[in-house]
TrEMBL record:
Keywords associated with the record: Disulfide bond, EGF-like domain, Glycoprotein, Membrane, Repeat, Signal, Transmembrane, Transmembrane helix
Species for this entry: Physeter macrocephalus (Sperm whale)
Name of this chain's protein: Protein delta homolog 2
SUPFAM superfamilies: Growth factor receptor domain (SSF57184)
CDD domains for this protein: EGF_CA (cd00054)
Domain of life of the organism encoding this protein: Eukaryota
Pfam families per the UniProt record, alphabetical: EGF
Transmembrane segments: 127-153
Record carries keyword Cell cycle: no
Cysteine pairs bridged by disulfides in the record: 21-30, 59-68
Signal peptide: none
Length: 204
C-alpha cells in the first residue's frame, strides 16, 4: 500500500507514517497542488494559469516572456507584403531577436493555413476534371472498338449466299432443295442415272 501520492516519499514510523511531499504539493498525503499563481507573478495584467510546480502567463498583445515583462517589437509595415495565392504559401520574416510565444503570434499561422487549404481545394477540382475527361475518352475508345469488331465479324463470317446461313433444325429438306437449286443455276453437271438393279421393276 502506498498512501503518499504524486511521487512523495513515505516515512514509516511506529503505528504511523508521514509523507515527504515534492515541490508543488502539500497535505498529509501530498494530494494538494500548491497554487503557484497565488503570488501574482504575471505582469501587464496578464492572466496566470497554474501548473504543477509551475505557471503560465497569458500575455496581452505586444508583450511576452515568462511573466510578460518583455515588450515585443512592432514589425515595420514596409517589410510585410501581401502574399497572392500561389505555389509558395509561407514566407519567413527575419526577426531582430528572440520572440517568445504570445497570443498575437498565431495570426500569421492562421493565414498560412487558409492559403494552403485554398490551394488544396484548387488541386482537388483540377484532378476531378482530369479524371472525368479520362473516363469519357476511355468509354469512347471502348465503344468504338466494340462496334468495329462487330462490323468486321459480320463481314468476314462467310460470303452472301443461301447455303451459308444455317437453317433451322426442323427444316433440313428445304435447305437441301435450296442448295440443289443453287448448284443447277451455277451450271454444275448432275450425276448420271444408275441402271435399275436386276429383279426390280418400277411400277408406273
Amino acid at each position: 500500500m502506498r498512501p503518499c501520492a504524486n511521487g512523495a516519499t513515505c516515512l514509516d514510523g511506529i503505528n504511523r507514517f508521514s509523507c515527504l511531499c515534492p515541490e508543488g504539493f502539500a497535505g498529509r498525503f501530498c494530494t494538494i497542488n500548491l497554487d503557484d499563481c497565488a503570488s501574482r507573478p504575471c505582469q501587464r495584467g496578464a492572466r496566470c494559469r497554474d501548473r504543477v510546480h509551475d505557471f503560465d502567463c497569458l500575455c496581452p498583445s505586444g508583450y511576452g516572456g515568462k511573466t510578460c515583462e518583455l515588450v515585443l517589437p512592432i514589425p515595420d509595415p514596409a517589410t510585410i507584403a501581401d502574399i497572392p495565392p500561389g505555389p509558395t504559401s509561407a514566407v519567413v520574416v527575419p526577426a531582430t531577436g528572440p520572440v517568445p510565444h504570445s497570443g498575437g503570434a498565431g495570426l500569421l499561422r492562421i493565414s498560412v493555413k487558409e492559403v494552403v487549404r485554398r490551394q488544396e481545394a484548387r488541386l482537388g477540382e483540377s484532378s476531378l476534371v482530369a479524371v472525368v475527361l479520362f473516363g469519357a475518352v476511355t468509354a469512347t475508345l471502348v465503344l468504338s472498338t466494340v462496334l468495329l469488331t462487330l462490323r468486321a465479324w459480320r463481314r468476314g463470317v462467310c460470303p452472301p449466299g443461301p447455303c451459308c446461313y444455317p437453317a433451322p433444325h426442323y427444316a433440313p429438306a428445304r435447305q437441301d432443295q435450296e442448295c440443289q437449286v443453287s448448284m443447277l443455276s451455277a451450271g454444275l453437271p448432275l450425276p448420271p442415272d444408275l441402271p435399275p438393279e436386276p429383279g426390280k421393276t418400277t411400277a408406273l
